[in-house]
Amino acid sequence: MIPITKLAAAACASAALALSAAGPKLSSESFGVLKDKPTYIQEWHIWWGFPYPDRQLPFLHMDSTMTSDGEPWRLDWNRNGYPLVGPYDAANPEIIRWQIRCMKAAGLDSVAVMLHPDNGKGIAFIQEAPTDMIERILDIAEEEDFQVFFMDEVAFRHGTIAQNTDVMAQRAIRFLKKYASKPGFYRIDGKPVYYFQTYGWPVKPEALEAMFRKVEAEAGPVHWMVFGAVTRFGSIPQIASMVDGANHHRRNKETRAWQLKEQDPAVIFANGHKFGKKITDMQYPKFDGTSQPWRQTGVAQYGLDGRTLETTILHALKSNPDFIMLASWNDWEEGANFEPGWDFDGFAGDPYLYCRVIAHLRGKEFVPPPPPPKEAVHPTIWEKLGYGDGAGPVVDKIQRSHNRGGSLAVTVRDTASEVVALEVVWNGDVYYLAPQGPNGKPGGTLVPGAELPKSVQLKNTFTFSPGYAVGVRAGGLSFTVPQPEKVPENFAIGVATAFDPEKPMQSVRVTATNREPVLLREPIGGKQLTYTFNLTPYPRDSRFPGEIWNGWRTAVAANPRPMDLAKPLTLEADGAKLGLISILGDVQEERVITNGEPFDEAGKIKTFRLTLPDEVLNTPGAHFVWLRGKDAAGNWGSPVLYAVPNYEFFDRGSDAVVETDLDIPGALLADNCSRPADWKQVSGGKPEVRPYIEKRSSTRFQISNSLVYRDLPKPLQGGFKLTFEAAHTNFQRYLIVALTDAEGKHGYGVGWDSVRSDIAGGTGFARILLFDEAKPLAWNTTGKILANKPSGHPALEDGNLARFELTLRDGVLTLKVDGKVIATAKDQKFGNFSRIYLRGNQSQFLDNIVVAP
């Protein structure tokens, strides 16, 4: 066989990717409308970080579990789109070269590379260290006969010295002297272009004008380009080009109707020309921020296969812009990218769609360049780029014979090679399994760093138990890995937590120590000592059916670089309940089975049938199994972790387990929380949900978005002693238990605010409350706070409810939690009590409510 050269392989791959070459579905009216208009892209983001080919590179602006998501070739990276070449590191020279070739083939005149001033002195850019990406891009641009300019993102440095115009002058002088003479640096009218944004930066026009003079006195003439309001800065004589307004503001976010007069380009361009500036606006192809919950939370503008951009370009051209500024080459966070990809708004089979849109508008044909060399891209994408098989199969589906059955059917799928094997590993190589059963002991060898809460029995939607779990306290749990030297260089980590339908996207993160600190770009010289595996789910419609049924959410991640497992692992899960944390190491032949049943002639889909081990079926509680498949090319696919509960049953003949009545001598009320019908609901401003009973040997209320009350058997006069047990299931929630008069207007109570996990040590604030109302208590009635202190008991249920005691004696209210006095207050307004109220939202457990003289 004659070996295929890199060049030939690239040609083969390029041919394989020449999809939908007929071009975008745009009108003939728009073909070539930008033929004579200089056309740029404002943002070439060089902040993307991905640890391949160099495993020491950090993740930047992405979360990746390094495991397959749906397809063998597609890594899970928590973004709405997917780059044509897979997740990449922006400093990879072969990626840079390929991107420039795509830009050039699309017909762009130039592109603005985004740079960020460092947060220290503000003189250098963070993209200059540890690799000088500016020089690298300019050198490659020169080799490819293309020129780029740069965008100083000074407006993103709120409150730092980088926004001082004297410092910015020093930064621009240094930058221009160092780089502007390079052939790859873009010039207009012979002057190097220096571009920056003013939106969100309260800089004064006179300060900018002085800065321009200072820079040009030392660095020579500059073509200053500003993204900002022309009415604010148009009078500055040194500014040559301006970008003002953005086309995505011309689409109504609620109705999707065009509102083309919003940020009207006719008005903007007329003002620019009045000041003698080259003027344009910002053209977005689409705008989708739903993959970045810390910023935009919706889709501001759909791309419509490029027709959105066509519409706004044609509208803008009516007002005679001097050039065109397109939004972003590769902003995969906002979804506004033009870069080729396998998945973006309006994707219909052509990964080069938006490059073809640009080419269409410029009146030319886009001819895709070859993709980067095989060695420059992650092996999982090889098959998609035509370089051969580098991705193992995916576990496509797991079915229990019936939902409490004794076997599993595991379907494994590959897209390039025959599926040949499946590895089956129960619980993992190194793991911690929560104690199963009321007196159970934890399984596995991972050692908790501190005593964990008592395991509690879970109950899922269908009223059977999927096992036991322990609560993850605020601040997280730490685990020590025994014999860490035996864990292989490459491993997977998995976590199983109880599925909470009220928090389906429960945060779950595991932090480990990097064996070698990772160099960061910000701050310059900074180091990343740890790596966090982000196992938090993100919105995908296929994420939850299994979890909803079996009560567990499982997630796995692969380590991107060598880890120092001699140092503890830390699990943070914001109050979730932990069933398993596990490490899966190398494949072991004794755990591999090969008896798959093929679905197709090529054997790319096979089903493996597993009989559950006797020790699983004979041990009540939760069990978990790792599964990963192998293909004929020798690739092992990403592992999955599957929950196999050995279900425990409850009596279905009644709605609740009724406990023996509490026997408290002298008590007016002693409620063991087994009879919710004794409580009446009050109309309020929130959904009304009756308290219900957990089916466990010890019953208790769970009250959710509800205000309920019951009358005492007889009025209580003078002082009182109120005790109850309680726990929250979420942070930032509020529980109130109050004693009032017969009308529900006057009295005292206890409030427990769970606040955030990082406040009050995760114990929340306990309060003594005074109620002196004109109307009976309602949902929004929270009373006057007489005292407010940290409760001292973990706010989220950890198996042990907090015991509250509020007494009124001789005009002094005393609040105890777990037997310890935490607050007192003086008040003698009220001494007649006939009713008790409970108020909770999303949601609280309550038990053993006692009212006594």
Q: How would you explain this protein's 3D organization?
A:
This protein is of the alpha+beta class and 853 residues long. The protein has 3 domains: 19-47 and 90-110 and 199-367; 394-643, no CATH class; 669-852, Exo-inulinase, domain 1 (Jelly Rolls), CATH 2.60.120.560. The strands form 10 sheets. An 8-stranded parallel beta barrel has the order 1-5-6-8-9-10-11-14. A hairpin with a 5-residue loop joins strand 42 (734-740) and strand 43. The termini are far apart. Residues 1-16 and 650-657 have low confidence and may be disordered.
State mean pLDDT (0 to 100 scale): 89
The share of residues in helices is 10-25%
Distance between the termini: 95 Å
| Assembly context of the chains | single chain
Into how many domains do the coordinates divide? Answer: 3
Work out the radius of gyration.
32 Å
- Spans of at least 5 consecutive residues with low confidence: 1-16, 650-657
Strand order of the largest sheet: 1-5-6-8-9-10-11-14
Q: Helix segment count?
A: 12
**Record field, number of beta strands:** 50
Largest sheet: 8 strands, parallel, barrel
Shape designation:
globular
The helix/strand class is alpha+beta
Q: In what range is the share of β-strand residues?
A: 25-35%
